[in-house]
């Protein structure tokens, strides 16, 4: 059991090291945004779903803003259940790529 924890800790450190080097690539995000398009319409702003909830416009926000928002959902600082679920499924690279992609939109 102890070994497992040690491994996890190591993996955590490796993850952090990798995160520092990740540079967002908008091109790489092109297939990743498929899971965002239904709600955050592209280009611009559409409220396809959910009907009762205003979906914020994320195209054209700064990369840092998008990245921070997604991390806040991951950590549970922001509570919207759908976005929490989505953010939880994203890797650091996904977040960097998506942030690059949306920040380049007008
Ligand atoms: C099922 C609909 C849905 C999907 C799919 C979805 N979002 Fe969202 N998103 C929302 C809603 C609704 C909010 C506003 C939630 C809130 O108030 O916290 C939101 C908020 C956000 C925010 C914060 C924006 C702000 O101005 O505060 C970001 C960034 C974001 N989404 C990125 C994404 C990305 C990237 C994807 C794809 C990986 C995605 N979303 C997929 C519905 C969705």
Instruction: Estimate the strand proportion.
Output: under 5%
What's the level 1 CATH class?
Mainly Alpha
Q: What is the 3D form?
A: globular
Distance between the termini: 51 Å
Unreliably modeled segments: none
CATH topology: Cytochrome Bc1 Complex, Chain D, domain 2
Q: Calculate the mean pLDDT score and round it.
A: 81
Order of helices and strands: HHHHH
Number of domains: 1
Total count of strands: 0
The secondary structure category is mainly alpha
Query: Main sheet, how many strands, which sense, barrel?
Result: none
CATH homologous superfamily name?
A: Cytochrome c-like domain
Organism: Keguizhuia sedimenti
Protein name: Cytochrome c
InterPro entries: Cyt_c-like_dom, Cyt_c-like_dom_sf, Cytochrome_c_Oxidase_Subunit
Keywords: Electron transport, Heme, Iron, Metal-binding, Signal, Transport
Word description of this protein:
Helix content is 54%, strand content 0%. It has helices at 2-21, 34-37, 63-75, 81-88, 92-103. Helix 3 (63-75) crosses helix 4. The model has no long low-confidence stretch (mean pLDDT 81). It binds heme C.
């Amino acid at each position: 059991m102890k070994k497992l924890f040690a491994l996890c800790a190591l993996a955590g450190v490796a993850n952090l090291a990798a995160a520092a080097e990740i540079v967002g690539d908008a091109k790489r995000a092109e297939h990743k945004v498929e899971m965002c398009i239904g709600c955050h319409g592209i280009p611009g702003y559409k409220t396809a779903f959910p009907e009762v909830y205003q979906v914020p416009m994320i195209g054209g926000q700064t990369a840092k803003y998008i990245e921070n928002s997604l991390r806040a959902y991951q950590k549970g600082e922001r509570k919207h259940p759908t976005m929490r679920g989505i953010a939880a499924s994203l890797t650091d690279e996904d977040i960097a790529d998506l942030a690059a992609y949306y920040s380049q939109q007008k």
